[in-house]
Each structure stands twice: as C-alpha cells, then as structure tokens.
TrEMBL record:
Organism: Calidifontibacillus erzurumensis
Domain Nudix hydrolase stretches: 40-171
Origin: domain of life: Bacteria
Keyword Hydrolase attributed: yes
Keyword Hydrolase tagged: yes
Pfam families: NUDIX
Keywords, ordered alphabetically: Hydrolase
GO cellular component, one term: cytosol
Listed name of the protein: NUDIX hydrolase
Family label: Belongs to the Nudix hydrolase family.
Any GO molecular function: pyrophosphatase activity
Xref: InterPro entries: Nudix_hydrolase (IPR020476), NUDIX_hydrolase-like_dom_sf (IPR015797), NUDIX_hydrolase_CS (IPR020084), NUDIX_hydrolase_dom (IPR000086)
Cofactor requirements of the protein: Mg(2+)
Gene Ontology process terms (BP): nucleoside phosphate metabolic process; ribose phosphate metabolic process
Length: 183
C-alpha cells in the first residue's frame, strides 16, 4: 500500500441532491492520526470543444448561480447514471448548440477539484458540425446564448475574466496548441 494512503474509518451522507451528494469521511492519516474529509460526489460530465466551418469556437453564455455571474463556457453537461461519455457528448452538443457532428474525438479527461470532489470531466473535440433544423433542445431550467468567437476573441474573454472556468480555458489552450501544430 502507498505510504500516502488514507484509510476510511467511517462515512456519513450529509446531503443527497439531484446532482451531488456530500459525505463526511473520518480517515486515518499515514501518521496514525485521524481527520475528517468533506467529499462531494458527482456523476461526472462532458464538455465539447466545438469549431464551426469558419474556424470559430462555439461558446454558451450563461448565468452560474454559484458564481452569481454570467460566464462563457464550452458546451457541457452532466452524465446520466450509467451513460457513456461519448453518448452524453453527442446529446449535450445537440441540446446546447442545435448541432450534431460526424466525429467526436476524445481529447482528455480530468478531475475538476480533487481536493474535495470526485467530479471527472471528459473533453471531446468536434469540427464537422451539422446544424439541426429544430435548433437547440434546452432543458426547462436551462437558459443560455450561443456565441461564436475567434481564438483571439476567446483569449480576450479570458483576460476579461468572462471565460473563467477550467474546462473552457483548457479548450482555448488546446486550440492554441493545435493552431501552431504543437499537438
């Protein structure tokens, strides 16, 4: 066993909601001491780096209550129980942008905040977009604007802190590396 391992002594559910579960776990530390860990359980998510035929990045502009502000993000959504990430990416792409793509390529998966949450996000890339006649199919509680930006405009949105989340900053950096042939 790894010398950094923390042994779980007990686990208590504090909250179970529609999206997350919060647990407090008592652990034994590597030095034998005890401590508590507050853990957010999350089903995982997908996000799609989506380029139009004009080489513009599709972003959604939406209000985020935890931040109490509007930000720009790449299209994304939560995995349903047992859902395959690729299937979720196809669904979210169509729901949020009104587009489908003949090709969705998995780029990277990463944990968003491993210090307190187990949320993993799977990033896909799509550039062969086909607009659907019916347009976006947003959920009843989902309100957003679809925006197309150049890579330079995306960099400016980062500077202005209008792009302010890790998955979208990752997407912009990915496109920057792709543009200069470093991928």
């Amino acid at each position: 066993m790894d010398h950094l391992w923390e042994k779980t002594l007990s686990s208590q559910e504090i909250f179970k909601g529609k999206i997350i579960e919060v647990r407090v776990e008592e652990v034994e530390l590597p030095n034998g001491q005890k401590s508590n860990r507050e853990i957010v359980k999350h089903p995982g998510a997908v996000a799609i780096i989506t380029l139009t035929s004009e080489n513009k990045l599709l972003l959604v502009r939406q209000y985020r209550k935890p931040l109490d502000r509007v930000i720009y993000e790449i299209p994304a959504g939560k995995l349903e129980p047992g859902e395959n990430p690729l299937d979720c990416a196809k669904r979210e792409l169509e729901e949020e942008t009104g587009c489908t793509s003949a090709s969705l390529i998995h780029i990277q998966s990463f944990y968003t905040s491993p210090g307190f949450a187990d949320e993993i996000i799977h990033i896909y890339y799509a550039d062969q977009l086909v607009k659907q006649a019916n347009g976006p199919g947003l959920d009843q509680d989902e309100f957003l604007d679809l925006v197309e930006v150049t890579l330079e405009e995306a960099h400016q949105l980062i500077k202005e802190q209008k792009i302010y989340d890790a998955k979208t900053v990752f997407a912009v950096q990915y496109l920057q590396l792709k543009k200069y042939g470093e991928l």
